[in-house]
Amino acid sequence: MSEKPVRFGILGCASIARKISRAINRAPNASIQAIGSRSIDKASRFASENGFPASAAVYGSYEAVLDDPDVDAVYVPLPTSLHVKWAVLAAEKKKHILLEKPVALNVSELDVILQACESNGVQYMDATMWMHHPRTAQMREFLSDPQRFGQLKSVHSIFCYNPGPDFLINDIRIKPDLDGLGCLGDAGWYCIRAILWAADYQLPERVTALPNPEFNESGVILSCGASLSWTDGKIATFYCSFLTNLTMDLTCAGTNGYLHVHDFVIPFQEKVASFYGASNSRWVNFGCEPTPTKHKVATDLPHEAIMVREFARLVASIEGNGLEPEKKWPIISRKTQLVVDAVKASIDRAFEPVEVGNY
């Protein structure tokens, strides 16, 4: 197993599955074994259009993928409301799980998924791709440097895009029975994860949703924001939207420096990504010195393929070497979901502060 590629099954033909299918094909330690859809014609068309190998099995149900003995792991890009059912069943079938975000409608559902993964000894990871880019590791080095950055004081993240009127009518992300968290679950997940990443995954004490979120006629969130605060004085804010021009900014301010990224979710260029850092800046005459430094980070693989490669490495270490599943990813997912839940609760409670530790 450790010398063979991890064989993936894909549940469903969501648009994001096109990107991950490409990533599996490009990852050196992974391969596509099967795809399943409620329509075998749709699954066949998807496989043909996305460069699946001729050996890949095509099924007219999700169950058939999970019953395939040659499938080692599954990628689950189904609507969020279906995650708990299919992720639990996958774990019970001993399939390792790469789960699309948002991973659940609430932390209670996620706990059911994580318990099933732990009980069955399978690896869990959410598909937050930017975390696997080598740029992210270099940014972490900068934030961890006491001389260059110092103590983290504030974070601001924003992820918004305007996909157009057809999306706002037909996409699953605005359907209350499919993805009831709307923009908060889709784009807000990235913003909240970035804040937690910057804070070294220390949960905030309190979350307060900002006034004037926007909803569609079904009550699904189309845009929202929130502030987060910690007992040590850190503060953070985020904004996410389906109604605003594409923006993917992350800013971290510390006592000695700051970091800024213009494209933290998806790099503008696939083979190189940049961030800006400044340390010990001072006003000098009509400007400031030193000016921010642009750091460029090259990569041979897109970050989604690096994610698949890392996930497949963990799976191979379990199946081939008898190691335990890596627990970091379930912990990070759960913390992200806790903050998502707190923001939603604050919106529902007319923007009252919500204590994260008590929610």
UniProtKB/TrEMBL annotation:
It comes from the Eukaryota. This is Uncharacterized protein. It comes from Vaccinium darrowii.
